[in-house]
Amino acid sequence: MRNASVPKQEYISFTKEMKKDYTILVPMMLQMHFKLICGVLRNFGYHVELLDSTGPHIAEEGLRHVHNDACYPAIIVIGQFLDAIKSGKYDPDKVALVFFQTGGGCRASNYVSLLRKALKKAGYPQVPVVALSFLGLERHPGLSLTLPLIHKIVYAFLYADLMMLCVNQCRPYENEHGAAQALADLWTQRLADQLTERTVVNYNQVKENYRSILRDFAAIPRTLRPAARVGIVGEIFVKYSPLANNDLERFLVSEGAEPVVPGLLDFFLYTVHATITDYNLYGLHPIRHRVFLKLFDFFDKKKNDLIKIIEEHGVFEPPAHFKHIIALTNGYIGVGTKMGEGWLLTAEMLELAESGVENIVCTQPFGCLPNHICGKGMMRPIKERNPNVNIVAIDYDAGATKVNQENRLKLMLANAKKSNVHEKNK
Predict the structure, then answer these.
(1) Confidence at residue 3, expressed as pLDDT on a 0 to 100 scale
(2) In what order do the strands lie in the sheet with 390-396?
(3) Do 315 and 298 form a contact (C-beta atoms < 8 A)?
(4) Does the predicted model carry a pTM greater than 0.70?
(5) Pairing of the two strands 129-132 and 47-50
(6) Starting from the edge strand earliest in sequence, which strands make up the sheet with 23-26, in order?
(7) Which of 56, 213, 232, 305 has the fewest CB atoms inside 10 Å of its own CB, making it the most exposed?
(8) Which of 137-141, 237-241, 320-324 has the lowest mean pLDDT?
(9) If DSSP codes are grouped into helix, strand and coil, which group holds residue 220?
(10) Gap between the Cα atoms of 298 and 130, Å rounded
(11) 22 vs 44: CA distance, rounded Å
(12) Position 425 pLDDT exceeds 60
């Protein structure tokens, strides 16, 4: 008899046999980051495809299978998956879906359950959903985060953060439209070819790659001109995903602005720091505490090395050190606030203000109350102490119109131009 104390597995595992001939679909969030990660996964023997579908029909597909009270990112991600399966491009009996999970208190930790329920409702109960998490929330023998794979994914994040920074600082000024993105695509393929299963990451080579990337982007012909620098913060998916934020970065560039977007590594440092804070405040996770202290030091050192190389190169503006970002929260919000991007959301706005980025878009998805508290709820105290900062909260949900969002952004940019003219006339 089956042991009654062992809970029955209620999901379909992605097995080692499936690895041979299943196509694994990955939802789009960060283009450069996810392209590079997919390249690394292919080098480890997985058949991976990054979904690049877009359009209002994605949200409509999500709403057909997810209750409209669910948070907007869940509707978008599930809609994109179902749209892909229904497109006829993939065999439903030979496809799997992967979703990255932090395992925190956010409702995103329930996306996988919602997705499985939606697949069953749509007639595809046989499709495996892989909840990929560093915490090992589920067992999927055919797709596991081994140490060599994790090691290479970490460097993929670092490379992609650097390329995102360079693209955003080049794209508004490039003489040839699309030159910065084309160079990023070229480097993405080159780096993916290096991060293979059989190779060992050489950190000296990584740092030399950083320098080469900076040199190549600095060589792009550009015409520098006055441009409003606009920071983008908010809920992690809506902040980064062009599908979810109606291609916010591209819109800002088309309006003559320079987007400034915090890197993804900061979010991982923030999640690691949350476990350290749990121990410091409540005595929770004593064993994990020691492990996460080492993880934090590892990630923090890697970011500091990258910042140093950017500073030495001298062309592009580097991000802030993470420990300084933590210190910016003093007097604003406690570091124990960790739901809905928690204290990091407030800290990113303060980091942008300190670096001279006085126009900030706070992307707020429907259905994430903690994110609204840490975003909209903190706008007033930030503005009171930083009177030159203009923060605009933009709501994203399945019923919000792109026109209304863009009109609010245009108003913010118009006010920014007026402020610049006023400062020049003083």
Answers:
(1) 42
(2) 258-260, 229-234, 359-365, 390-396
(3) no
(4) yes
(5) unpaired
(6) 47-50, 23-26, 95-100, 129-132
(7) 56
(8) 137-141
(9) coil
(10) 27
(11) 14
(12) no
Position 108 scores a pLDDT of 60
* Of 54, 394, 422, 400, nearest in space to 231 by CA: 394
Q: Is 387 strand, coil or helix? A: coil
Per residue in 356-381, pLDDT (tens digit) is: 999 999 998 877 777 878 888 899 99
Q: 316 Cβ partners below 8 Å, 6+ apart?
A: 165, 166, 169, 214, 217, 218, 310
- Name which of 110, 56, 120, 112 is nearest 85 in CA terms: 120
Q: Quick count: other Cβ atoms within 10 Å of Cβ 54?
A: 14
Following CA atoms 105, 111, 116, 117 in sequence, which dihedral angle do they give, to the nearest 10 degrees? Answer: 90
Element (H, E) at 39: helix 31-43
User: How many whole angstroms separate alpha carbon 232 and alpha carbon 262?
Assistant: 8
Question: Strand 359-365 vs strand 258-260: parallel, antiparallel, or unpaired?
Answer: unpaired
Going from the C-alpha of 316 to that of each of 214, 218, 224, 357, the distances in angstroms are: 8, 8, 13, 15
CA triple 188-193-199, angle to 5 deg: 130
Alpha-carbon distance 277 to 368, whole Å? 22
Domains of the chain: 18-145 (3.40.50), 228-263+319-425 (3.40.50)
- Are 215 and 245 in contact by the 8 Å Cβ rule? The answer is no
